[in-house]
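note to self — DONT lose this again. spent like an hour looking for the file last time. sequence + predicted structure for the chain T wanted, 303 res
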Amino acid sequence: MADVMMTLFAIVIVGYVAGKLGYLGGDFDRQLSRLVINLTCPALILSSAMTGELPDRNYILPLLLISAITYIVLTGVAFLLPRILTNKREDEGAIGFALMFGNVGFMGYPVVASLFGHEAVFYAAVLNVVNTFAVFTVGTILITGKNAVEGPRFQKKVLYSTPMIAAYLTMAIVALEIDHIPPAVSQPLTMLGNITVPAALLIIGSSMSNLSFRTMLGNHTVYATTLFRLAILPIGIYYLCTLLGFSTFVVNINTVVIAMPVATYGTILCLKYGRDTTTITEVTFITTLLSMLTIPALATLLF
């Protein structure tokens, strides 16, 4: 599993170097971000339900339920805890996003596969349905913030964005047990979806290239956020869901998904809505780096 984590982090470094050399950055990053959000990510979501393997129906509803409970809890954390972790009001949304959302689609799948086997990727995809809904609803509110005159800048059309439509369709595929998608549909979607991981990681690396080395080392707020994202919140969710009576298998997969470093969508949404990427990029960098140690440690400690 350490090899998987190092491989993903290496792509971030490539993005950093490409940004420094001028191959990435500026308008190109913004356009690539739009491509990832509106095209390749929906393809990734849909293709995750087109593996051709029929999952155990007994796990599907518990996974959806545990994910819903998890993100209800994390929503409260995301809106309350940043007020304690930082005294900069403008950073509260980015920190809240970092606390709430792990890198499920980009890093969660390969890590889950390495721990539980390839067949478990589908279950991670089921968990990702709720995550996707939350990213483009609650996550959008966290990143865009609130304005005293305009109120929340959340737009209802987000509910009908291409990632959300893909999430709805994926849920339908799961519920209806449609396990024979024609290759003419599944293969192009899979190829498009495969662009998402490297593209998103390159965007993160490129965003880092705009930061000074000292800035990338973070500050006490970044490290406090990292401690909650990689350790305190996953362990807390693990014991909460165990007490609620979920099966060990369901709790373990959900915990691994929650233990991922900060979701790359934080940086992407900041670029899309014209927000400062400094804080979200710092905490994404630090959590991605340290997750190479914390995820194996957490798996050994809890499982």
